[in-house]
Amino acid sequence: MAAREGLTETEKCLLVTVLMAVCEHVQTTGEARLRFLRRMRRQTEVAMTRAMADSGAPPVSWDAPFLMANAIAGVLPRESPRWWVRRRTGGTWEDLSISDDATTDYYHEKPRMTKEVFEDIVAACTPFLHRQVTHYRQPLQPDHIVAYALYRWASGETFDNGTCSFGIGRATGIKAVRDVTDAILAAYPDIIAMPIGRRQRQVKRAFGAKGFPNCFGAIDYTHVYVDKPANAPAEDYFDRKQQYSIVAQVIVDLDKRVLDVFCGYPRSVHDARVLWNSSLYRRATAGTLFNAEPAILPGGVLTTGYLLGDNGYGPMKCIVVPYGGVEQVPDVALFDAKQKPVRGVVERAFGRLKGMWRLFLRHHKTNMDNMPQQFTAVCILHNLLINAGVDFDERLLMERDADGNERPIDLGMYPPAAPVAQRNADPEALALRDALRACISLLPR
């Protein structure tokens, strides 16, 4: 058999491909050999180009060995991105794990906070999230678990879609949200509370400047939309706008901090009944909700504290509502005009809360047994971000409809179907409102 004079053109191409794959692989393993590898790659490319030219192959096919070599090596033939080009990785968790110039942007977009605040939350929740190491696998780290739960609440993505970005399964994602919810409630038991001490004085001073001395906050409710419940009577959750929802009753101060939250009743329950069944009402009735020094109002009326609400509530000693009506005398009209924007801080608070944590803005599948706890956990996060001075992006108050047009987000705040009758209201509640009306009339106009 005659000896072969040299390699065939096919063998040359295969050899060059293997050499390039080896070069690309070695190139990623160390900077010390970078100069040598670049020289070797140039020589290889020249040799390959000559081989392809000698073979008579059409020029359009010359890139095939380059592409195959890079595919084998697991890299693409491109230069490193410049510093102003935002990096892209294999998922949200990788985006959050890498520290570089883009990290701050990713933290503001994904979990809606700074990296420092995120790390503080992880540190507080870690004692409640430790898992036992077994022979089968390593457990997820607390920062991984917390990051996914925050991303789920912030993005509103389904478990099927969101878990892929964190390299976890659907069942793991469901458990992560449940565990992080419990951890936040355990780690921050006092973040949602009526103000005391110095904070109470600040709250009362802010409301007093608006004409409402000794006021502790404003109260209202919002609808949290859900898909048709599977583990509860669906008809109980069907509201007058033909949607399934639960009611969250919230009190906030003028800084939009949540002072009290009561969530979980289906929408079919009247607002007044939700109030009567809350611990807030029981504490107010027992005289333990407000503990400020009594303020003496015009007419000798004394009050230790109260809230501002709309006409979905009746006049009470603990809730001051507008007079309402069509034909109003000037001082009554002035009172209602002043009271409305002050109590409107609740709507602004819901805008920030639901704008950031968009899962509670849309319909979503949820376990009704755990939904109230999740909403409370998000209210805690809401307060933590305010305390940390994290700014709110006003653009989150807008969304695009199916036609691509911008519109305000639906905060789930329905006006009262009918104002609560005031004829049989508590005389002390009416006297308190009249005294506050006199306070408003004394303000400079």
UniProtKB/TrEMBL annotation:
Regions crossing the membrane: none
PANTHER family: GH03217P-RELATED (PTHR22930:SF85), PTHR22930
Top-level taxon in the UniProt lineage: Eukaryota
Molecular function terms, GO-annotated: hydrolase activity; metal ion binding; nuclease activity
Protein name: DDE Tnp4 domain-containing protein
One GO cellular component, as annotated: nucleus
Cofactor(s) of this protein: a divalent metal cation
Compartments in which it is found: Nucleus
Sorted UniProt keywords: Hydrolase, Metal-binding, Nuclease, Nucleus
